[in-house]
From TrEMBL:
<protein>
    <submittedName>
        <fullName>Glycosyltransferase family 4 protein</fullName>
    </submittedName>
</protein>
<dbReference type="Pfam" id="PF00534">
    <property type="entry name" value="Glycos_transf_1"/>
</dbReference>
<feature type="domain" description="Glycosyltransferase subfamily 4-like N-terminal">
    <location>
        <begin position="52"/>
        <end position="225"/>
    </location>
</feature>
<dbReference type="Pfam" id="PF13439">
    <property type="entry name" value="Glyco_transf_4"/>
</dbReference>
<dbReference type="InterPro" id="IPR001296">
    <property type="entry name" value="Glyco_trans_1"/>
</dbReference>
<dbReference type="InterPro" id="IPR050194">
    <property type="entry name" value="Glycosyltransferase_grp1"/>
</dbReference>
<dbReference type="InterPro" id="IPR028098">
    <property type="entry name" value="Glyco_trans_4-like_N"/>
</dbReference>
<feature type="domain" description="Glycosyl transferase family 1">
    <location>
        <begin position="231"/>
        <end position="366"/>
    </location>
</feature>
Length: 414
């Protein structure tokens, strides 16, 4: 006996999925015409309380999708760029808790619940920016969810013990109690993502390890046009960034103190007092500085010292866009950016002694380094390259989704 369809193709389309018909039409048309301007787009970022690498990625996403709305757990408008202030930013209930803009990290156990309260049913394309919890949002069944992963949450995975040791006993106890539940939630919500994008090969390996998911590597955008090659030989070594334990600023401070080399430290954090206590007279601390001051120091330094392990590390590329070499610990994203002796050197051990040896080797070849060649290398990580690669990926994924929404009915009708 031959079975025949009792429902016509137009009638069958009425039963497709959970989303409104107009939303499906937007996805189908965008997939076929590779025009995403008609899509409703949501950008989900963990928190907006400073302007670091993750926030710069959010800025670039907003330029790619000017119609997008931003969802974030907590926002401090005094610490974000003027550009982001013009965007439609929606915060979670955590924003209403007194002191949330300063003590947001202490609210980590509440963040999964806060994320899942965001209503994203009207959005066709959801771009989550993951480092703190962001990918765990709940999207419409037929929406495309692409997660740009700066890192799986360090404080519950490979950096768990580092963060835990830095807390008072109450914080350590709370972290021990809540971390297993957060890990389970983090792994479970990986299935809510259609496509993972990793910001480096290093992060791609961590996504595979913790989530058992493959990812596409697209390096984050670096605004290389904002930097210019400095003139003359550099005047000092430079460390810039958060003064936290895992970034190991102590290695840079000790090395320059022992060698009697000038070091300028730009940044703030809980290690500031300790670093000042071990620093010699050749080390200068400037604290937090605006972008124009950082840019000026990048153009005038002998080299950027980068002793920590970063998932990618935008700052080394900014230094290279200024024509300055980088002396970096041989781990993480530095293996992909400081990839040639023409642009800098890497040291194999995360110790003061290893950095001192690398500084000595650098100073022997310092006069032969070509600033223009260093800048040319940095352009591989420009915002233009980022936009082209991410746009191509989104177009590809939308086309696949549009094909899937049509083909089943064609097969049934036949």
């Amino acid at each position: 006996m031959t079975l025949k369809a009792t429902t016509s193709l137009p009638d069958a389309r009425a039963f497709l999925g959970d989303a409104p018909v107009m939303a499906k039409r937007r996805v189908t048309e965008a997939g076929s015409a590779t025009d995403t301007k008609q899509l409703r787009v949501a950008i989900v970022h963990y928190w907006l309380v400073s302007m670091r690498g993750g926030e710069k990625v959010v800025e670039e996403l907003c330029r790619m999708f000017p119609q997008a709305d931003i969802f974030t757990l907590v926002c401090n408008r005094d610490r974000i760029s003027d550009f982001l202030k013009t965007r439609n930013i929606r915060t979670s209930f955590l924003q209403k808790i007194p002191g949330a803009q300063r003590h947001y990290t202490k609210m980590l156990p509440l963040m999964p619940f806060a994320l899942e309260q965001f209503d994203l049913q009207e959005y066709d394309l959801v771009l989550s920016s993951e480092s703190g919890p962001a990918k765990g949002i709940i999207t419409r069944a037929d929406a495309l969810h692409i997660c740009y992963c700066h890192s799986p949450m360090r404080y519950i995975w490979d950096q768990f013990h580092v963060y835990r040791h830095g807390l008072p006993w109450v914080g350590r106890a709370m972290m021990s109690l809540t971390a297993p539940m957060l890990r389970a939630w983090d792994v479970t919500t990986a299935s809510r993502v259609d496509t993972f994008v990793a910001n480096s090969d290093y992060v791609a390996s961590r996504i595979r390890r913790f989530y058992d998911r493959d990812s596409v590597v697209i390096h984050p955008p670096v605004a290389t046009d904002d930097f210019a090659v400095g003139k003359g030989k550099g005047e000092f070594y430079l460390y810039a960034g958060q003064l936290t334990t895992y970034k190991r600023p102590d290695i840079a401070v000790r090395a320059c103190t022992e060698a009697g080399r000038k070091l300028v430290v730009i940044g703030e954090g809980e290690q500031l007092a300790y670093l000042k206590s071990i620093a010699g007279p050749t080390v200068q601390f400037l604290g937090h500085q605006p972008f124009n001051v950082l840019r000026d120091h990048l153009s005038r330094c002998r080299a950027l010292l980068f002793p920590g392990t970063e998932d990618f590390g935008i700052l080394p590329v900014e230094a290279m866009a200024s024509g300055r070499p980088v002396l970096a610990f041989d781990a993480g994203g530095a293996r992909e950016t400081v990839s040639s002796p023409l642009v800098g050197l890497r040291f194999a051990q995360q110790t003061t002694e290893a950095l001192l040896e690398t500084m000595a080797a650098f100073e022997e070849i310092e006069d032969d380094i070509d600033p223009q060649a260093i800048r040319a290398h940095s352009l591989k990580f420009s915002s233009t390259v980022f936009r082209e690669r991410l746009t191509g990926l989104i177009d590809q994924q939308l086309s696949k989704r549009a094909d899937r929404s049509v083909d089943p009915f064609r097969r049934r009708a036949g």
